[in-house]
Amino acid sequence: MAAKKTYKVVFYNQDEVFEIYAAHVFPSEMYGFIELEEILFGERSQLLVDPS
User: Fold this and answer.
1) Which of 31, 1, 49 is nearest to 20 (CA)?
2) What's the rounded Cα separation, in Å, for the pair 51 and 26?
3) pLDDT at position 34, please?
4) Of 41, 49, 5, 48, residue with least CA distance to 26
5) pTM here?
6) Selection from 26, 44, 43 nearest residue 35 by Cα
7) The predicted structure's pLDDT at residue 42
8) What 8-state DSSP symbol labels residue 30?
9) CA distance linking residue 7 with residue 38, whole number of Å
10) pLDDT of res. 5
11) I want to staple 41 with a disulfide (CB 3.0 to 4.6 A). Which of 8, 19, 37, 45 is the partner?
């Protein structure tokens, strides 16, 4: 069985450092952007995403 890869994406926004973990990372069709799929949340996550 192949091991699953997990990517750690770190970015800086308004004097804060954010870390996101995702199963897939792709270049976007828009120049300079990336797409993240299957975002992984830990028990201590402080990020809440509301798609509505």
Assistant:
1) 49
2) 20
3) 92
4) 5
5) 0.62
6) 26
7) 67
8) S
9) 10
10) 83
11) 45
Q: Which residue has the tokens 């995702």?
A: 22
- Please count the CA atoms within 13 angstroms of the CA of 48 that sit on its side-chain side: 2
Closest alpha carbon to 21 in 11, 32, 33, 31: 11
* Contacting residues for 7 by C-beta, under 8 A, at least 6 apart: 21, 22, 23, 24, 25, 36
In this predicted model, what pLDDT tens digit does every residue of 9-52 receive, in sequence order?
898 999 999 988 999 999 999 999 999 998 887 655 566 677 77
Residue indicated by tokens 């792709």: 26
The torsion angles phi and psi of 7, rounded to 5 degrees, stand at -105, 140
